[in-house]
């Protein structure tokens, strides 16, 4: 698998980063067995995915713990690019933002214990905290970096203004925003800004939480009763029918290459200008097998234009409905 360097760091990530939000289960993704998560980790590494994205909040510590155990048992620490986050704390079922300095220091230690490592390759602020200034957060991240506790500084879900403010107080190497065929807001301001400022973009939810695989439209797979999907606008009418039509046409393009819709979606997303890696979530080994074959081939220029026009038509119809 192709590796891509994160500017101004010693780190290279794989074109696909493994997303592990579903590990550890919970209300967002429903039940996930640890043995399936471990099998996904093994399959990913065997197929050249060297970067793994997690966060303390995923499975309330469970995702980090599963990954930490896996890396230790397989002695893979020096082979894996480990990316985690901070800034969301929980008490029972209540989750809240907390980026106060004291809590950031605690979170670093908690994640180091669960992941069983002294340092993280990429450490990312998960979401801005409305009650803490960006400068306070950035100062703490900068200190982690100076001390060698983290090899690259990242933020997630930040606006351009927040990124600019952050950069006054800390180096910034990675941005982790949402990005997929149906969610392209970052193309306007954020991608050009990151390209200009040498910030790597590692986009999340490239399959739009599995919706872009087409399985809820063409394969008789029911939309799961989990928080990520059950109320998702894209699988509800009137949007469902518009999306189905668009995905059907995209699937016809994928057929020309002997690829699945999922593979076309992965290829397209990863090859957009300014995208360093995409974080694809997976829960079963067969998903990894399919997803990895989304790379290593090219969509030709004419089909690329056709995809652009299909996505534009879909967006226009959706915007019309929202008016
Ligand atoms: N920074 C943030 O705020 C933030 C937010 C969201 C996500 N993330 C990160 O980004 C990662 C990816 O995002 P995501 O998990 O939201 O969405 P995603 O990557 O768009 O979708 C992943 C889900 O799609 C399904 N899937 C994957 N491959 C498939 C295949 N080949 N065929 C059919 N179904 C397939 C799986 O769920 P099912 O099998 O259950 O359908 C999988 O969990 C997360 O795991 C997390 O690491 C970060």
Summarize this structure briefly.
With 323 residues, the protein is an alpha/beta fold.
Summarize the structure in words.
The chain is an alpha/beta fold and 323 residues long. The chain has a single domain (3-210, 261-299), classed as NADP-dependent oxidoreductase domain (TIM Barrel), CATH 3.20.20. The chain has eleven helices and twelve strands. The protein has helices spanning 34-46, 62-73, 101-115, 134-146, 160-167, 190-196, 215-218, 239-256, 261-270, 285-292, 301-322, and strands at residues 3-5, 12-14, 16-19, 51-53, 81-86, 88-91, 94-97, 120-125, 150-156, 174-176, 200-204, 275-281. The chain has an eight-stranded parallel β-barrel with strand order 3-4-5-8-9-10-11-12, surrounded by four helices. Strands 1-2 form a two-stranded antiparallel ribbon. Strands 6-7 form a two-stranded antiparallel sheet. The chain is globular and about 50 Å long. 44% of the residues are buried. NADP nicotinamide-adenine-dinucleotide phosphate is lined by residues 19-22, 53, 126, 156-157, 176, 204-210, 213, 215, 224, 262, 279-283, 287, 290-291.
